[in-house]
Design a protein that fits this description.
The chain is α/β, with parallel strands linked by helices. It is 35% helix and 33% strand. The longest helix has 14 residues.
Amino acid sequence: MIKAIIIDDETHCIDRLAGLVNEHHAGLIDLQGAFQTAEEGLQAIRTLHPELVFLDIQIHDTTAFDLLRQMGEIDFDVIFTTAYDKYAVEAFRFSAIDYLLKPVAADELEQAVGRLEKKIAKNETAQKLDALFHNIKNMQGASRRIAVPVVNGLVFVQVSDIIRCESDSNYTTLFLKDKQKLTVARTLREFEELLTSANFYRVHNSHLVNLAYIKNYQKGKGGLLTMIDNSQVEVSTRRKEEFLKKLSEI
């Protein structure tokens, strides 16, 4: 059983989440209480030692981040509950942090709990939260970090260090500015969804490129790109028109 608590200042949100947990996940999650102020939440964490905290982003005049920064060591998992806009949610996705949009949906809770069960290691939580704090401050900038799952855990990579991503079935290889390559068990589509807003474009079924690192474009049926590392990437015919439009907007 996973010992858990809820920290949220809205009673109806607590009731909704607690109801879903008790109805669908009672065999896995032992919900030990709900707390409506940051002070009560901090005290509960220190006395109950939960393994999981469902944490509201805004708790009266305190943010969840303020609360977490008061913890000496974060040795529990966190699933945020939030009504934040899409840009803040993007920061969560970049940091591989789980979040539930309010009002919480049963299927989204199920997915978050499923990911929790499959987690590689609990000691990644502090790293993820560090990345989240960084990304919240840099939501629109190139200094955002992306959490990349590798064999031994997670590697946090600056988005601005990625030249391109190349697909090989269900694996994707990231090519970085320092000539390092990272191959991960995630599809190119997942990286496309994550990185499109960071000036990346999928020029081919197998290639997602950082538009800022295109060295030149050679015309052709679809065309051929040369990246700053001198690698060459084919542009598919059906993506050519939209790609050239994207280039013209840079």
